[in-house]
Amino acid sequence: MRGVARAAAGAVGAVLVLAACGGGGAGVGAKALTASWGDPQNPLEPSNTNEVQGGKVLDMIFRGLKRYNPKTAKAENMLAERIDTTDSRHFTITVRNGWRFSNGEPITARSFVDAWNYGASLRNNQKNAYFFGYIEGYGKVHPESGKQSADTLSGLRVTGPRTFTVTLDQKFSTFPDTLGYAAFAPLPRAFFTHHAAWLDKPVGNGPYTIESYTRGAQMTLRKWDGYPGPDKARNDGVTLVVYTDSNTAYTDVLAGNLDLVDDIPAGQLKNVRTDLAGRYINSPAGILQTLAFPFYDPKWNTGGARKVRTGLSMAINRKQITETIFRNTRTPATDWTSPVLGTAGGFKPGLCGRACDYDPAGARKLVQEGGGLPGGQVKITYNADTGSHRQWVDAVCNSINNALGNDRACVGNPVGTFADFRNQIGRHRMTGPFRAGWQMDYPLIQNFLQPLYYTDASSNDGKWSDKQFDHLVDRANAETDRPRAIGLFQQAEGVVRDNMAAIPLWYQNGSAGYSDRLHNVALNPFSVPVYDEIKVG
Amino acid sequence: MGRYVARRLLQMIPVFFGATLLIFVMVNVMGDPIAGLCGERACDTATAAQLRREFGLDKPLWQQYATYMGNVFTGDFGTAFNGQPVTQLMASAFPVTIRLTVVAILFEIVVGITLGVLTGLRRGRPVDTSVLVLTLVVISVPTFVTGLLLQLLFGVQWGWIRPSVSPAAAFGELIVPGLVLASVSLAYVTRLTRTSIAENRRSDYVRTAVAKGLPRRRVVVRHLLRNSLIPVVTFIGTDIGALMGGAIVTERIFNIHGVGYQLYQGILRQNTQTVVGFVTVLVLVFLVANLLVDLLYAVLDPRIRYA
């Protein structure tokens, strides 16, 4: 029997050695890198991709009329030679000469107009269709109910091989700056003629081309040597590897099997600095976390409730929570935008004023003046499946309970899945504050305000409505002078503050870690790595 | 025998329908999956309505179920939200998980039974005691702890393996994950074999075999082990289904893109088609494995006969 034991031990040993041999890099070349990725939720079409993971790929294989500077977030002309307007409603766009898709097809005005019409059409089920909502004729292409009565947007017209005009149904002075968003990317003919094949292996016009794509597993991108743009890739390629768990990706970086992880799991934040010694990035992103309120519930829509909301805001010790729970990967918010906008772009630290300062006595006073908490208790609803929301919601509640001197004042109300959470919000089932996160689509102050607080706007989940706010936003959109427009938006933000339409909690940072093979790694304002600038070796 | 098999196969039908219906209802109770599709912002009503129509979510539940089952019998498991047919997901996920399960079962059989025989023959000796303590530790420590620990030690500290498994998921890469997946069952197999061996050691046929002067090896393997294996085989057989379904934790730790991964994604995104499709196949695997176990009884113990 001893023999058997020895044989078994030997087998296990051999097996482990074999396993060791099974390892090895999955790189595509010496100057290529591997990076963590998540499985995109939707098919990879520019106007159908609304989450970061799919967005990463689009950012690598597409370039649009504008591009947001990865450092300053400023919208800069890319394929656009000129975007002219005299009235903020009619725009004439000239596309630069000499650009091609990676399959050789030249990019013309039609590449854009066809793509936008495709994106707007209800028939194509595009989840980002509303981005074309400002363009004239959207209601016919994408009616709220019933069948669409037109195939193309009447506000889009090709006027030459490289020129087209856009007519909006209202004045929108910062419209050109929205055109850096991926939904506005141009599309080659192959997209329309061989749709399924295109989805299997998307073809774009960016610095990278897709070499292979195994859905749910990995995507290999190669530098496109024929790329005509100024931002050519500085590495040979990127292999995006799908990870279900950011912990595993992080472990893989530590073991040297992965070059770049762009989501440091919360549990690792305390050791990341020693683990990665200088190869850890923690930089601001255009993400703001807030607590929204159900204004469709009469209890929350009274004059007194306004004071209660402000009181709750003052009861939250933002500084302590961001330090202890988030280890300074978030910054206490003092306005409703994001530092990535820059002060010139509308970020105004301190706009929230005393309402965002931790002041237990003031909080107690305001809540009392406002008639106490509606129903005697606030329940903060959040989804418990992702994003470690439980920890901070519990901390916020703790802070509120301490400030109000009542340990039943606030409790968390977890919902099992994100889908169910969104479902309950959509059906207006919220009875108290709920988690609201806003990741900007484009770095404009308009994007932090209008979709969230304008009457019946697409992400106004709390159904807040205020005439003065709407009016100020309309005026800001009509204003052609940029600084004046931003001033008006900030006035509108003041209205949000005075009513405490949503409690701003903290600005979120993007975090990433990388292996010692990489240099020049940075995150852009959308907290996506700037892949094309990374140098390997 | 033939009639027995036929009867068992017929019994599978209600179990199959019951299980799928249950999963179908459960996923549906969780709410409207379309709501989560558009990220933090709500889908516009027209697109949401159209998506709902496309996935058949606007119909009453019984009708969805009927349509779904009808399609399943033609081999169409529907489409996942990312536009991929569920059958395609299965084709990529099942081979990986089957490989992982095979590795795990091999560990159970080779290591588990060997240790069981060893300890069963030496009850009370130091080997026995130490293996007993070891199995107790393995049983009481949750799989994710074992997994993360092995990953950290072998993958990061000593660099013997890659902490994560590549998309190809070759056998060699699945050995440590397979060991982790098997660990708890392995401990049970060891203990089951040990008890069974220890009991049968004192039975008449073993004494007879020894009295006949048969070599010790033959007594142990042909006489003692064969009879002692019946409960072990039952356990391992039923474990096949459990391992495939229960691989969620292990697959997540080692980033293996198998059934567990797809199920996890499906549940997170409330993708009825994915979840129901995968669970349906898992139910089938479970049923077939159980049937095979029952049939194996007759092979191991000829006294058992099925009319």
Give a verbal description of the structure:
The complex is a heterodimer of chains A (537) and B (307). With 537 residues, chain A is of the alpha+beta class. Chain A is built from 18 helices and 19 strands. In chain A, strands 11, 12, 13, 16 and 17 form a 5-stranded antiparallel β-sheet that branches. In chain A, strands 1-10-9-8 form a 4-stranded mixed β-sheet, with helices on one face. Chain A has a 4-stranded antiparallel β-sheet with strand order 4-5-7-6, with helices on one face. The longest helix of chain A has 21 residues, at 2-22. Chain B is built from 12 helices and no strands. Chain B is 74% helix and 0% strand. The longest helix of chain B has 36 residues, at 86-121. Chain B is globular, with a radius of gyration of 24 Å. Chain B is mainly α. Classes of the chains: A alpha+beta (537), B mainly alpha (307). Chains A and B meet through helix 1, helix 8, helix 15 and strand 16 of A and helix 2, helix 4, helix 6, helix 10 and helix 11 of B.
